[in-house]
Specification:
Rossmann fold; single chain; globular; alpha/beta; 7-stranded mixed sheet; about 260 residues
């Protein structure tokens, strides 16, 4: 990974590009943080890989007016952006450079890359979320995909310091079963109301209506308590749902970092 970093030259695409990522495997809150940042800018696009989607190549998930595909095509995280950011363009592409070019073609002046620290061949502002993990080794002996290299500039944000999570419970029922397919689901514990049971699935799991109906029956619950990441995949099933709607409040100094980068 170090050789890969040293052998890549950042390409300037003539547009402001901000990457929100983390160094470790698993969830860190990139999606809600990116959403909170993008809400404050006009002519904005989100470009991400679209992990877990049932499609390949470049797909415009949403233009500035409407959602153009379903969640199976976009992947869960892209669909969250499509729902949360009414003014933004959302594009999935394994090749981030193609996604950037498409977003620029569609009129974007600011492009947020979801999880693109390792794309060292793209000129961008790198913002990383610090994740408290005891094992600081890289794969395969630890949870880190790569290091923060000494001659790589990046800004490190701490949860609870530089941004704060706020959770709103919507459509509360008396008996709720937590059902979630996010990385490190224990992150939800501090925000959870009383639940009948906790049902954890692999990150990005594609739910079926039948398996969720069985959970309702098994737990004897009145509704399924889900995060927004799960909600976009199961809302069409017509099952009783309660929603843990997460957003983040961002410290003003983070916007100053981005604004300074844009001015430069």
């Amino acid at each position: 990974m170090w050789l890969r970093f040293k052998n890549q030259t950042p390409e300037d695409f003539g547009v402001n590009i901000i990457s929100i990522g983390n160094l470790s495997v698993g969830g860190s809150g990139k999606t809600p943080l990116t959403s909170a940042l993008a809400l404050n800018y006009e002519n904005v696009a989100i470009v991400l890989r679209g992990y877990g989607r049932q499609s390949k190549g470049l797909v415009v998930v949403k233009d500035t007016k409407e959602i153009l595909c379903d969640v199976a095509v976009s992947g869960d995280e892209a669909m969250i952006y499509a729902h949360k950011l009414a003014h933004a363009i959302v594009i999935v592409s394994e090749d981030r450079k193609l996604g950037i070019l498409k977003a620029k073609e569609m009129g974007a002046k600011i492009i947020f890359l979801d999880d693109a620290y390792s794309k060292h061949d793209i000129k961008k502002l790198d913002i990383l979320i610090d994740v408290d993990i005891k094992n600081q080794n890289c794969l395969p002996s630890g949870a880190f995909r790569e290091k923060l290299w000494a001659d790589k500039e990046a800004y490190i944000l701490k949860d609870g310091v530089d941004f704060k999570r706020v959770v709103e419970l919507k459509d509360k029922y008396a008996k709720m079963s937590l059902v979630t397919a996010i990385a490190r689901p224990q992150r939800l514990d501090e925000f959870l109301p009383s639940v009948v049971a906790k049902n954890y699935f692999e990150d990005h799991h594609s739910f079926t209506k039948d398996e969720l109906e069985k959970i309702l029956l098994k737990d004897g619950s009145d509704s399924l308590l889900v995060t927004y990441k799960d909600f976009v995949k199961v809302q069409s099933f017509g099952l009783p749902l309660s929603l843990l709607d997460l957003h983040v409040e961002v410290d003003e100094k983070v916007f100053k970092i981005i604004d300074n980068y844009i001015r430069k």
